[in-house]
Design goal:
Belongs to the type-B carboxylesterase/lipase family. The protein is an alpha/beta fold. The protein contains 12 helices and 15 strands. The strands form 3 sheets. Strands 2-3-5-7-6-8-9-12-13-14-15 form an 11-stranded mixed β-sheet, sandwiched between helices. It has a two-stranded parallel ribbon with strand order 1-4. Helix 8 packs across helix 9 and helix 9 crosses helix 12. The N and C termini lie far apart (54 Å).
């Protein structure tokens, strides 16, 4: 049951254990953001009569249909797509069937990735983690793209709607998760890619005080250049014009966009700029760098890391090509071999991305936060079906291991890994245990696991491969180049682009 009414879920089995999981799909945590609710904060869900069926996946939030093809490159080419709807603010909950009424199990609150533009909660299956590690897994959906982040830059529509959805979902967890065996006093917010960036902003937001107790960001933090803006109005104007809205005032343009048929937002919008997150004075009061310098955030334990070939296959959205040209001399130099040039170019994307996670980790560490850092290196054997041999552990490659892909009963699930080797099963179990230990206590270490040291001044981290190793100072030489390059080239470039747009 929930505070709003009764729900009926289903039992799910997991490979390798006789423990069952109770699954509740499509639990509403807010009203559908329709009509005047578009480009507005989420409102509490309304109660229902009778028993709500919670055995079917909810629709995905509105997103560009062409971009959803990116979702099939995670493991072996499988793609799970669901109907799309503006009515999409739902949770999927996985909890051990064996739980008792008195149980207070730790809670993992997961935010999916997808550049804040695509994705769904149903792309992950929480049953193996719940069954093997005795935790409650909550997967959340939030508004994406234009619906999730468009801002007028004033009080009419300040933006960050998708993040406000996440806050509303965390508030729902506080009031309801005990009914599912979860402990509202032990909630870990976690996410990958854009979901990891969202986690890092939730940590900094004044709206989330007391709503969570630990944080995990996989391959994504909030300090990538260009991800945040203090002046969203020029982008808002551009988007309004593309959708046929005319006028000079925010009120006229936002009302015009509210009146548009929702399916117009699912067409190919690749010609438009990515919608940046906004310093809106509500969800986010200041830029993250300023909040770090002023120590204005809670000190919750933090686990984060990267993959060793983040963009060995897919290219990240939103990185200006001019910046790639600036770094090419260092990475490519006088090389003439096409494959060497290709690999060097892909490393430019990946290393620029990795630096941001390292810098964020250093800022956390220097502020007194316990930090655990990792690099994932294993190339999944399933890659042989869809990716060339030069691709190593690229963006999202760690997901099937953390989520227990080898143990998923539903082999059609996007992260299911039925053909995993025995060594890959062992790697998956180790990563599941590390993550669950952190979710329970804020420390990933536990009996039978190699020690994972804190990320301190020695910059120690754990390297995940078929053999686990402790390393120090990840990519020290390349990171030294990027630190200087970001300061001398990237920041002036980004600021110059902002100034140009504002003109």
């Amino acid at each position: 049951m929930t505070q709003l009414g009764l729900v009926r879920g289903k039992h799910v089995a997991v490979k390798g254990t006789d423990r069952l999981v109770d699954v509740f799909l499509g639990i509403p945590f807010a009203k559908p953001p329709l009509g005047a609710g578009r480009f507005s904060p989420p409102q509490p869900a309304e109660p229902w009569k009778g028993v709500k069926d919670a055995t079917a996946f909810p629709p995905m939030c509105l997103q560009e249909l062409e971009r959803t093809d990116l979702m099939k490159n995670t493991l072996d080419g499988k793609q799970q797509l669901f109907p799309i709807s503006e009515d999409c603010l739902y949770l999927n909950i996985y909890t051990p069937t064996s739980r008792q009424k008195k149980d207070k199990l730790p809670v993992m609150f997961w935010i999916h990735g997808g550049s804040l533009a695509i994705g769904s909660a149903s792309s992950q299956d929480g049953s193996p983690l719940s069954a093997y590690e005795d935790i409650v897994v909550v997967l959340v959906q939030y508004r994406l793209g234009i619906q999730g982040f468009l801002s007028t830059g004033d009080e009419l529509a300040p933006g960050n709607w998708g993040f406000l959805d996440l806050v509303a979902a965390l508030q729902w967890v506080q009031g309801n998760i005990a009914h599912f065996g979860g402990d509202p006093g032990s909630v870990t917010i976690s996410g990958q890619s854009a979901g990891g960036a969202a986690v890092s902003l939730l940590v900094l937001s004044p709206l989330t005080k007391g709503l969570f107790h630990r944080a995990i960001s996989q391959s994504g933090v909030s300090i990538l250049p260009g991800m945040l803006t203090n002046n969203p109005f020029p982008i808002f104007q551009t988007i309004a014009q593309v959708f046929g809205c005319e006028g000079s005032s925010s009120a006229i343009l936002i009302q015009c966009l509210r009146n548009k048929d929702n399916m117009i937002f699912t067409r190919n919008l690749s010609s438009l700029p990515l919608i940046p997150m906004t310093v809106d004075g509500v969800f986010l009061l200041k830029l993250p760098e300023k909040m770090f310098s002023e120590n204005e955030f809670p000190r919750v334990p933090y686990l984060l890391g990267v993959n060793n070939h983040e963009f060995g296959w897919s290219i990240p959205l939103g990185i200006p090509p001019e910046l790639i040209h600036l770094a090419a001399d260092v990475y490519i130099g006088n090389q003439t071999d096409p494959l060497a040039i290709q690999n060097a170019a892909l490393d430019i994307f990946g290393d620029m991305f990795i630096l941001q996670s390292l810098k964020f980790s250093e800022d956390l560490r220097d502020s007194g936060v316990p930090v655990y850092f990792y690099e994932f290196q294993h190339r999944p054997s399933a890659f042989d079906k869809i990716k060339p041999a030069y691709v190593r552990a690229d963006h999202s490659a760690e997901l099937p291991f953390i989520w227990g892909g080898p143990f998923m009963t539903d082999e059609g699930s996007m992260l299911a890994f039925p053909d995993s080797t025995e060594e890959e099963k062992q790697l998956s179990r180790a990563m599941m245990r590390y993550w669950a230990n952190f979710i329970r206590t804020g420390d990933p270490n536990g009996e039978g696991l190699p020690n994972w040291p804190l990320f301190d001044q020695s910059e120690s981290y754990l390297e995940f491969n078929l053999t686990l190793k402790i390393r120090r100072k990840l990519k020290e030489d390349k990171m030294g180049f990027w630190r200087k390059f970001i300061h001398e080239k990237v920041k002036p470039y980004v600021e110059g682009k902002k100034a140009h747009v504002e003109l």
